[in-house]
Design brief:
InterPro entries: DUF6594. This protein is mainly alpha-helical. About 60% of the residues lie in helices and about 0% in strands. A two-stranded antiparallel ribbon has the order 1-2.
């Protein structure tokens, strides 16, 4: 097979390559002779020329020194197989290079088509004006007059400051008065019903008869009075229940509102117009930000108040919103979306830590079986406490979560003990 391949290669090399014909323009038009003017000479391939000479003469190829200090032992020999491999590798490399070039060109074209040049502030302003964005009105606290207008604008600038008094004590005081009034009227109505039931004439009033001989409107007046008092009572009950459902204002929110009102003094503090800030236990959040609904968000905000790490605050702060709403350098507004992302990261970290710490302890620290059981029980208890206190989960949810966590720890202990016993047996 090798001889046949060499024979085929010799036949292919022996055939004289066909030279391309020159076009008519290659002849000199100004000359009467038809002798062509040679424009250029095509250099013959060095490798093919050397191969043809070697096959015709049967002599080994002469060593060509690529470098002056190269020795005959290190000079490569030119064979048909090496030529074919070299050409195949060059073709593969050229194909790969063409693919890389095509991908790079496509990516560069895509980036150029999608990227737009950075506009100057003047050009950006003109663009916003052409689109009508300049007509958008953003409320700024400092633009309003001091007093009730500025206080209202500040409370509306962020959900943290939107806190009001619930007047829970007054609400129950009104309910207590109305409740007693209704009790008294209820007693009077019961006595009147018993009196009508004992009278044959007035007994008809209990059945709905009216305007007959001997009838009076005493019962109707009493029922109307009861209706008015009960409407007031029910209205206060429902409104007080709605305010209580908003949840108690978190201590941090109450402190933030107190600090701003005390420093800025939008209302007359000496005249008692700002006394509502002195009742933090009676404040409710209009945004429903209860101290139990956002445990991780409240923890992050409280942590930054005590330890203001610049890189975390830069990530959470929304500089555009802050500049639009107030110029006060002591008012820090956090982006709701970024704060939620940070809270989610913290939640996942706590869950992963509660799951991996017992696994690492049981796997890496040598201990006896009683100690393993104690550690597993402690972490199951810790997991239940964390879930119930931080997530506000119901009892059945805490039970199911603790059962799943205990099942994972138990399965890990079983696998660990089985591996230990098999290792000891072997």
């Amino acid at each position: 097979m090798a001889r046949m391949a060499v024979a085929d290669l010799e036949a292919a090399v022996a055939v004289e390559p066909r030279r391309p014909q020159r076009p008519p323009e290659a002849y000199a038009r100004s000359s009467n002779k038809t002798e062509p003017v040679v424009l250029a000479t095509i250099p013959e391939n060095h490798e093919m020329s050397e191969l043809r000479q070697r096959l015709q003469t049967g002599s080994p190829p002469a060593a060509t020194a690529v470098e002056e200090d190269s020795s005959p032992e290190t000079s490569p020999t030119l064979t048909p197989t090496s030529i074919a491999e070299t050409r195949r590798e060059a073709a593969e490399n050229s194909g790969l290079l063409s693919i890389v070039k095509a991908m790079s060109y496509s990516l560069l074209t895509f980036v150029k088509s999608t990227s737009s040049p950075r506009l100057t502030p003047e050009e950006d302003q003109e663009l916003n004006k052409s689109r009508g964005f300049d007509k958008l009105n953003y409320e700024k606290v400092d633009d309003y007059p001091e007093g009730y207008p500025q206080l209202a604008a500040f409370a509306n600038s962020c959900d943290t400051f939107a806190n009001v008094r619930r007047f829970g004590r007054l609400s129950y005081r009104l309910l207590a008065h109305l409740q007693n009034d209704l009790i008294d009227m209820e007693k009077v109505l019961d006595k009147l019903d018993k009196k009508d039931a004992a009278d044959n004439t007035m007994e008809k009033r209990l059945r709905g008869y009216e305007n007959y001989n001997g009838w009076d409107d005493e019962q109707r007046k009493l029922v109307s009075k009861i209706s008015t008092a009960y409407s007031q009572y029910a209205d206060i009950v429902l409104k007080d229940a709605g305010l209580r459902a908003l949840g108690k204002c978190p201590p941090r929110n109450a402190k933030a509102l107190f600090t701003w009102v005390w420093d800025e003094k939008p209302l007359a503090i000496g005249a008692g117009k700002s006394d509502f800030i002195f009742y933090p236990d009676d404040l409710v959040s209009l945004a429903g930000q209860s101290q139990h609904d956002r445990p991780f968000e409240n923890f992050i905000e409280s942590f930054l108040d005590s330890y203001p790490l610049p890189w975390i605050k830069r990530f959470l702060q929304h500089d555009t919103e802050t500049c639009r709403k107030t110029d006060d350098e002591y008012v820090h507004l956090y982006s709701v979306d970024k704060l939620k992302i940070a809270a989610n990261i913290l939640e996942v970290s706590v869950a992963v830590i509660l799951l991996l710490i017992p696994v690492f302890l049981l796997f890496l620290v040598p201990m006896g079986k009683p100690m393993m059981a104690t550690i597993a029980s402690l972490f199951v208890l810790l997991f239940s406490v964390v879930v119930s206190s931080l997530t506000g989960a119901k009892v059945q949810e805490v039970f199911f979560g603790s059962a799943a966590y205990a099942a994972v720890i138990t399965m890990f202990l079983g696998n660990l003990n089985s591996n230990s016993s098999s290792t000891g047996t072997s």
